[in-house]
Amino acid sequence: MPKRDVVSWNTMVIGHGLVFTNMMVLGTRRNQFAFISSLCACASLASVKLGKHIDGYLIRKKFRPNTIVVSSLIDMHSKCGSCEAGFFYLMGNKQGVVLWNPMIYALAQHDHGEEAIQMFDDMMGNGLRPDKITLVVILNACCHAGLVEEGLRLLESIIGGNFFSRSGTLCSLD
């Protein structure tokens, strides 16, 4: 590679997450895109070891990731099968539903329906309003966990809270 800068390394990282380690060894500057690309590669390869290595690096360096990097971390942990509710609460400041939705979804996909519901309740307790994706995700969590009554309660709570109209939510039910 004739020019070893952040752009050329990011291009390589997209193809394979292990290149990230080489960037670290050579002291190449890493930006948000390098982390996103590396974490996406780890998720695609189900490379939990490398993904946790990157996660640890972010923590050690006190790197302040943007929302997309945090979302990539959530995706990587979920696809590598390492998602527990406790982990997600350590993810730091989650100001919008854009980060709560994938956490709730990941818990639902890994048969943690009750934890997904608890996370939804925590999201609401933090004053965040669910969006339509949140509604689908939480109903999906209830469906996967066999929590039909809880799903109906949550649906009524969301509709009763005037978050959405009844006609806009009916297509979400299965």
- What is the first-to-last residue Cα distance? 52 Å
Uncertain ranges: 169-174
* Strand/helix succession: HHHHHHHHHHH
Helix proportion range: 55-70%
Q: Compute the CA-based radius of gyration.
A: 18 Å
Strand coverage percent: under 5%
Number of spatially distinct domains: 2
Pfam families: PPR_2 (PF13041)
Protein name: Pentatricopeptide repeat-containing protein
Keywords: Membrane, Repeat, Transmembrane, Transmembrane helix
GO biological process, one term: RNA modification
Task: Tag the structure with descriptive keywords.
disordered C terminus; TPR-like_helical_dom_sf; transmembrane helix; PPR_At4g14850-like_plant; repeat; 11 helices; Pentatricopeptide repeat-containing protein; 174 residues; mainly alpha
Written overview of the protein:
This is Pentatricopeptide repeat-containing protein. Keywords: Membrane, Repeat, Transmembrane, Transmembrane helix. GO terms for molecular function: RNA binding. It comes from Populus alba x Populus x berolinensis. This protein is mainly alpha-helical and 174 residues long. It folds into two domains: 82 residues, no CATH class; 90 residues. Helices cover 69% and strands 0% of the residues. It has eleven helices and no strands. α1 runs parallel beside α3 and α9 runs antiparallel to α10. The longest helix is centred in the N-terminal third of the chain and has 14 residues.
